[in-house]
Amino acid sequence: MKLANQCLLLFLFGFVLESAFGCKKHCAADYGSQGLPGSSCAEILKQKCDDAKDGIYWIIIGQSKPFPVFCNMEAGGWTLVFKLIAGISGGPVKTWKMPFPTYEYSLAALKTNNDFKHHYKNRIVQNWSAFKPSEARVVLYKGGKEEVVLRFNAANSNNANWFSAANVLESPWQDILSEKKNYFTIGGPCWGTGCRDFHINNVYGNCPRDVGWLSVGDSAECKWENRFPAGVKLIYSKASTHVNYNTFTIVLKTYKNITYISIIFHL
User: Fold this and answer.
1) Which residues pair with 183 in a beta bridge?
2) 244: Cβ–Cβ under 8 A, 6 or more apart, which residues?
3) Are 40 and 80 spatial neighbours (Cβ–Cβ below 8 Å)?
4) How far is CA 106 from CA 7, 10, 87, 218, 256, in A?
5) What pTM did the predictor assign?
6) pLDDT band at residue 145, thresholds of 50, 70 and 90?
7) Distance between CA atoms of 262 and 110, rounded to whole angstroms?
């Protein structure tokens, strides 16, 4: 009888931890809904006793209204904050720096495909310090699956300086830290034809000798960019090192292979 009372108390107070008496966890089934939003995907996953699927959940920051986000629960509770679609007009850094969200309440924008033909950003980008991410991932998706993953230490960072070589924790390119870089930045160089954003580059050689790892933007300055349709281009090295962007056999051949790029956070 004593054990039953202790289990009941744990349930009434909503504890999520396993009872020392062997009682089952009390998992919040509705946590992460619009009526009961969480503070992040990682926190929602914890409240659900690590038993949650990938999908759309609701979170809240401070005193703001709840808003929907896509949560990658199977990877540990990552929160989508930014999504760029290949072939869509509008430079990445322009969307990133806007002082307001774009399509934040559109559930279609949160699907893991490129059917929604607009760039997406939620308020977390502008409320970086309030959200306090510990890590950030830049992911290129192909057919809804992760194709390229860059993981960064985002602790004590802001929405500009987290994307740097000093913060790299995981990369598909083994030389990204050892080789020199003339650009490792969210906002890269711009010309009249557009910009190269989220740009990780080794050297420039007047287009024919341009070497790097990643270029996301709407620039059409060089032939290696012009072979893609107008709009945002997601160009990256398919090798384990940096490459000459003109070596098409080891650089992304067609923008249709990569559907979108997203930035997701973890607490």
Assistant:
1) 201
2) 209, 210, 211
3) no
4) 41, 38, 20, 24, 23
5) 0.83
6) confident
7) 10
